[in-house]
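User: Sequence recovery, please. Input:
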């Protein structure tokens, strides 16, 4: 089976974990501190707070902002629903923004209208959570401009974007804070894990306290990363350049075969050399509307190729669903998006097999109904 994703491990990760286990100190300690320093250095940020997951990072950020009932947070619908779930759990309201089918990121042209509508509905709009979807940078400069105009905080969801640069600057470093995920599908992994980066001393102090039971002075949580997770993260971070290079090699193979193929639309950032500055975590293509994406997933599996949908349209999830489709582009991306295998352990031959199999399956002949043959004809033969 060609896996959709796979961590890129070798003996170095095993040795790092063994050293931590042998030390007898496995909770948050020296390795976590070193990992935080390394992430901050990689991103050019003053502070990094390592936590148990990307979702935990979002939870802490929203709590540090003081998000409460009656507040509204603007979130792209087409994204993993971590942020929407956390906002809901805090008693606030996720305000869903539609995306662009061209690059799967939030449609900034709709942002100001959404803000004004939410205010007229009586919500206290407090923040915007732009997502760098699948590692591709959103139009963060325009988001920041609109946020400043309406006095809103910006927390960047850079869960997939470690290594993505925007005009030479790491994604996640433009707003008040940014978050990363180190889930096994991400660029580097600690198993589970996440981090918050910020240049604000005050915000960093709040996040550190919230991570550790409020330092027993206020309400807080236990979102501490373990030392053996951080030890894995340090090894993974040392491989970041190599991992990105291997993944880009696979992406180039996909491009050679899929670019210009009927029935398949590639994200626009792959059509120019700018993608060299993007750490693409998931390579999602958009299938034409007359193609049954779910059937393609099933058929690809028959050829021992794992594929999946890209992300849900959160506004359509049962907990958030309304009677009208308020984010039609997000709905299309959810229904027709196909995530292809992409990881540093893949070979060019595997990428070629994935691409060529996909082309074969979406060709018109695949969908022709089998012809029925009369029984008497069969007997005559």
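Assistant: Recovered sequence (381 residues):
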């Amino acid at each position: 089976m060609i896996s959709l994703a796979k961590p890129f491990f070798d003996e170095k990760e095993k040795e790092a974990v063994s050293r931590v286990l042998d030390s007898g100190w496995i909770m948050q300690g020296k390795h976590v501190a070193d990992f935080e320093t390394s992430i901050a250095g990689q991103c050019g940020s003053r502070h990094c707070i390592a936590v148990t997951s990307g979702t935990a990072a979002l939870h802490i950020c929203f709590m540090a902002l003081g998000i409460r009932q009656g507040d509204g947070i603007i979130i792209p619908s087409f994204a993993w629903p971590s942020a929407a779930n956390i906002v809901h759990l805090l008693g606030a309201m996720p305000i869903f923004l539609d995306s662009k089918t061209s690059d799967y990121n939030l449609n900034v042209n709709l942002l100001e209208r959404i803000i004004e509508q939410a205010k007229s509905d009586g919500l206290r709009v407090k923040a915007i959570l732009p997502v760098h979807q699948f590692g591709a940078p959103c139009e963060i400069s325009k988001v920041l401009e609109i946020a400043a105009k309406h006095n809103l905080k910006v927390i960047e969801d850079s869960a997939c974007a470690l290594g993505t640069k925007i005009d030479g600057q790491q994604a996640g470093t433009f707003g008040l804070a940014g978050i990363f995920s180190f889930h096994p599908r991400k660029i580097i992994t600690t198993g589970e894990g996440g981090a918050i980066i910020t240049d604000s001393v005050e915000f960093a102090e709040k996040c550190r306290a919230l991570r550790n039971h409020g330092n027993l002075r206020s309400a807080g949580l236990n979102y501490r990363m373990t030392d053996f997770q951080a030890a894995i993260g340090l090894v993974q971070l040392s491989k970041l350049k190599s991992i990105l290079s291997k993944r880009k090699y696979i992406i180039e193979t996909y491009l050679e075969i899929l670019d210009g193929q009927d029935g398949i639309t590639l994200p626009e950032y792959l059509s120019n050399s700018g993608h060299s500055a993007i750490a693409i975590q998931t390579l999602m293509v958009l299938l034409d509307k007359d193609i049954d994406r779910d059937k393609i997933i099933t058929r690809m599996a028959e050829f021992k190729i794992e594929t999946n949908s890209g992300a849900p349209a959160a506004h359509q999830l049962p907990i958030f669903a309304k009677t009208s489709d308020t984010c039609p582009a997000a709905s299309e991306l959810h229904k027709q998006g196909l995530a292809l295998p992409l990881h540093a352990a893949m070979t060019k031959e595997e990428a070629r097999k994935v691409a060529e199999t996909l082309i074969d399956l979406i060709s018109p002949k695949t969908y022709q109904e089998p012809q029925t043959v009369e029984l008497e004809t069969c007997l005559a033969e």
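The chain is about 40% helix and 15% strand.
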